[in-house]
């Protein structure tokens, strides 16, 4: 009897599986993180950068005179001869000079040294909601970073917590107001630090950084106040308006919540009506009335209602007070 020499179904299935495995390996070899295509693109980028840098260096060499000296004018003249050269920027007519070429920026110093300018990542973020929400509600923060051609985003982190690597977008959630610090690192080693202020969860007030020198604060209505060294000012919409009494504190925690003595900064018509215990800022412009009880002093319209509201807004009962500025 003549036997059938055709392949069996099992052999066919095994053959297909082997072909799929080989195809997967081939695709990974081509497109993986260390694949041929990735390495090819990396080599192409490095070659492009090297060529651009070489053209700038040749232009600089051509700008030296017979005495071995260069001038900013000669350098700029030679740079303009480079095909497709971008913007050329000097510093008050001299060095250092910056030149843009093929998506890169190079810096030339007075000795003719050429270095590629390190570009920092640009960081943006969005919130899942900017509306006022209840205490404990989850708000998602999406961080997006970009960097110049030839570089990549290598890591996005929040303080000592790594959020993502080798990607330019990531998200994390918070359930309490605070200022959250995000660090974005690029392949050139440059790091951009961004502070993200969340103020729409509940009514917990958060504050600015502690000022190391007297700073002018402008509220949402355009009015200004000088915040003295050693204090932080409330930045949430609840107490950041001068006419409502501007709350300041001398101590904040890692999330910028007040943990120290709080005072209400309030404009007054006549500072002589208040006892000057300690002055801050310039001259006699600032006044502090310690343990100030509402309704017992004069000098501010409707003081009973206004001072009661401001006095009660201070959360640290161990050291309530008011901080005044004349108007």
3D architecture notes:
Strand 1 (88-91) and strand 2 (94-101) form a beta hairpin. It is built from 4 helices and 18 strands. The model is unreliable at 269-308 and 313-321 (pLDDT under 50). Helices cover 21% and strands 31% of the residues. By secondary structure, it is an alpha+beta fold. It has helices at residues 9-31, 36-61, 72-79, 303-313, and strands at residues 88-91, 94-101, 104-108, 114-116, 122-127, 139-146, 153-158, 161-165, 169-174, 178-186, 191-198, 215-218, 224-227, 232-233, 246-249, 262-268, 286-290, 321-326. The longest helix is centred in the first third of the chain and has 26 residues, at 36-61. It folds into 3 domains: 37-116, no CATH class; 122-198, Immunoglobulin-like, CATH 2.60.40; 215-326, no CATH class. The strands form 5 sheets. The protein has a 5-stranded mixed beta sheet, with helices on one face. It has a 4-stranded antiparallel beta sheet with strand order 1-2-3-4, covered by helices on one side.
The count of β-strands is: 18
Mean pLDDT: 75
Give the biggest sheet.
5 strands, mixed
Strand order of the largest sheet: 14-15-16-18-17
The gross shape turns out to be flat
Share in β-strands: 25-35%
Helical residue percent? 10-25%
Low confidence ranges:
269-308, 313-321
The helix/strand order is: HHHEEEEEEEEEEEEEEEEEHE
Q: What is the total number of structural domains? A: 3
Number of helices: 4
Given helix and strand content, the structural type is alpha+beta
Q: First CA to last CA: what distance?
A: 116 Å
Q: How many whole angstroms does the radius of gyration measure? A: 32 Å
